[in-house]
Amino acid sequence: MPHERILSIQSHVVFGYVGGKAAVFPLQCLGYNVDVINTVNFSNHSGYGRMGGTKTTATELDAMFGALQQNGLLMSNRLLTGYIPGAEALFAVERIANKLKKEEQCLIYLLDPVMGDAGKLYVAPDVIPVYRRMLPLASIITPNWFEVEVLTEVSIKDMASLQQALRILHAKYHVPNVVISSIPLKPWLLAALPPPILPPISSEESEHLFCLASSTNGAGEDPGCPHPSRVHAACVPLLPGYFSGVGDLFSALVLAHFHPHISNQSSSPSSTTTPIDPVEQRSQSPRPPPKLTSSLTPLSYAASLALTKTHAILSKTYEQALSLPEDERQPSDDELDAKDLMRKVKRMRGRELALVEGQDIIRGIGLNADAVRWMGEWDAFWES
After folding, report:
1. What are residue 109's phi and psi, to 5 degrees?
2. What φ, ψ does residue 209 adopt, rounded to 5°?
3. Which of 40, 121, 154, 171 is 20 to 30 A away from residue 363, measured at CA?
């Protein structure tokens, strides 16, 4: 099978690993050809407090898209979009997404609606209606908790509101695959989880984050499956401190491992069919054990590998940060950071994702099926 080609449209930084710098190298490690368009060109990410650079204008984006098209170079069968700071630039991206969808009927488009986190927008508010209009173009979206609330205008505070938000994304905006990562494991959510998805009893005292994957995958169309989607979930331990670029890495890995036409499901309970995944064969990533092949969807399979590899990269990054000199491991303190700007810089640069050091993790070398955080199916999600 020829190597697939991805068009990546997101931010670029000279130093560090966020946006395209967190996504392109992992995609290349997994055997993809990646064409890159930068929506911004910055020295570093904004967490450092100081940065220089420019935003790519809509006119510049249109010019690049036009030249690529004239030269017959828009050859991508996958599209990945991330941070786009303003509506005009996002309109330009929407135009190219529409064009690619028309020319490549089987285009797989992962839209990461990067807008903000922890209740705060870090893009212009005028991008919100554009993102809502773009949702039906997407094969997969990977919003965080806050971005789901912004897109759906639903405050998620209990199971009913979580269900409502997912219904809106699937039914109103016709998104077939939704992955929400880094969800705080709040008491109401923890109480609703079935035993197979709960954190291990031995780690009850540790903080965890929650990841949810919801795929229509024919659900709701089959009279025997009245629910709007199939939901899978997993919990992961929360590592101390702040890391940048995690969502960008995770989204890239979801796209890399997503193969909608290669079923991870068996046609009968006794079948031991496992997925035949060209990327997995090249990258030595494991196939799920037979007992899981009947429950995993293509989305939950991809999200499981993405979750496993992202957490392993984070763990490696955290371990490296702990080995740094003390003055590069100082805790966050706004007052002290304001007095000494390099205090924050040293802390941030010591926590840049260890992608190069962890490239074997990305490729899946040495990763066996037992080490994967396989997502469990939440059968009663829609009945809660």
Report:
1. -115, 115
2. -110, 160
3. 40
Q: How far is residue 71 from each of residues 64, 67, 297, measured CA to CA in Å?
A: 11, 6, 38
Q: Tell me the C-alpha distance between 341 and 335, whole Å.
A: 10
261's tokens: 């036409």
Task: Compute the Cα dihedral for 330, 336, 341, 342 and give only its sign.
Answer: negative
Helices (H), ranges, the chain: 20-29, 58-70, 87-103, 127-134, 145-152, 159-167, 187-192, 246-257, 278-283, 290-293, 298-322, 334-339, 341-349, 359-363
Q: Which of 340, 320, 336 is nearest to 50 (CA)?
A: 340
- pLDDT per residue of the chain (384 residues) written in tens, 0 to 9: 347 899 999 999 999 999 999 999 999 999 999 999 999 999 999 988 899 999 999 999 999 999 999 999 999 999 999 999 999 999 999 999 999 999 888 999 999 999 998 888 989 999 999 999 999 999 999 999 999 999 999 999 999 999 999 999 999 999 999 999 888 889 999 999 999 999 876 555 568 889 999 999 655 444 455 688 999 999 998 888 889 999 999 999 999 999 987 654 433 333 333 343 444 444 455 666 655 566 889 999 999 999 999 999 999 999 999 998 888 888 887 888 888 889 889 888 989 999 999 999 999 998 888 889 999 999 999 986
Torsion, Cα of 188, 116, 235, 238 (10° steps) = -110
Tokens of 154: 């639903």
Q: DSSP state, 198?
A: S
Q: 3-state class of 35 per DSSP?
A: strand
